[in-house]
Amino acid sequence: MLDREGFRPNVGIILLNQRNQVFWGKRIRSHSWQFPQGGIDRGETPEQAMYRELHEEVGLMPEHVNIVARTRDWLRYEVPDRFIRRDARGHYKGQKQIWYLLRLVAQDWNLNLRATSHPEFDAWRWHDYWVPLDVVVEFKRGVYEMALTELARYLPKNEYRNRYLRGAGRPRSQDDAHDLMPLMAQSPPGMELPPGGMFDPDPQFDLRSSGSKPS
Q1: Residue 187 and residue 67: Cα distance in Å, rounded?
Q2: Which domains does the chain have, with CATH numbers?
Q3: Mind listing the pLDDT tens digit for each residue in 125-161?
Q4: What is the rounded distance in angstroms from the CA atom of residue 152 to the CA atom of residue 108?
Q5: Sites in the chain below the pLDDT cut of 50
Q6: How far is 183 from 202, CA to CA, in rounded Å?
Q7: Which of 18, 38, 125, 171 could form a cystine bridge with 177, CB 3.0-4.6 A?
């Protein structure tokens, strides 16, 4: 289901734990990490699609989360041609998304990457709120920054720190990026993995060489 401009309606999910860290999932059989997201089916509201995708991708039910906020408008990104099926090129342009900020009110062990017969992720971890901007595939970075920035106002004031808005910017060199790796490799104390999940201590990779297709 595409709109007139070729964008598919979609929902994105930013799931917070009690430490205000965000769920970060590795797409199955690839090196691509991302937030949970998925298309809105015909007849669904964005909220209904969000709860369906939440269960299909991470195994959570509505009672496991609280909705903190959502973006006010659609946020769009275009998908490069190399990620689009040949038969869809010229028609499909990208995604337009409503993003939800959710709070996990259950235990980590309720997360289940194999809740359905068609899993989307095969590993996951918790990240500090802004870290995904450093590691998400380039063509999604802009929409991630817009969503995280708009929804950051709902975090506790001491957590509302956007180094991008304060001028620190993304790493300017390979040495700068390497400095981030010790932070990203830390496993939060007491983290529990879901059925079928594994902890990958180093999600650094070259996304441009990944052949995975965006959901």
Answers
A1: 26
A2: 7-206 (3.90.79.10)
A3: 999 999 999 999 999 999 999 999 999 999 987 666 6
A4: 22
A5: 164-214
A6: 10
A7: 171
